[in-house]
Amino acid sequence: MRLFLDANVLFLAGYSRSSPVHDLLVLHRSGRCDLVTSAYAIEEARRNLALKGPVGAMEAFRAALADVVSVAEAGAPALGLALACKLTDAADVPILAAAIQCRSDVLVTGDRRAFGRYFRTALAGVEVLVLRDALRRVLELPFNDE
Prior knowledge:
The protein has eight helices and six strands, in the order βααβααβααβαββα.
């Protein structure tokens, strides 16, 4: 299973050593899933950590990135598919487009403004999940409300 990590999930990897994103990194290391992201998402997370992160956040962020593959930025076909989804924040179109282009199974995001109405649904073949649901998906567990 291929999971695309949005910038806010990457941010958590640096911001909090107790965040569930670290559980996802462990699952990746055990071969349960592949973790990918884009340079666009990495830069957004890095920029926000530099502004808001605690001491040691950048080191934790860089360590987490060792387990995440950076995929190519999206081309016109994937951008077109992402634009057609009519996200409420145009800044998130490149995130969705990169997830579509690299054929991710899941987009892991905490961005309720752009993706909230799409949680637990698929956009152009990519299921949109919050972190806790992505963990449950990888572990093949039902969601808490099922």
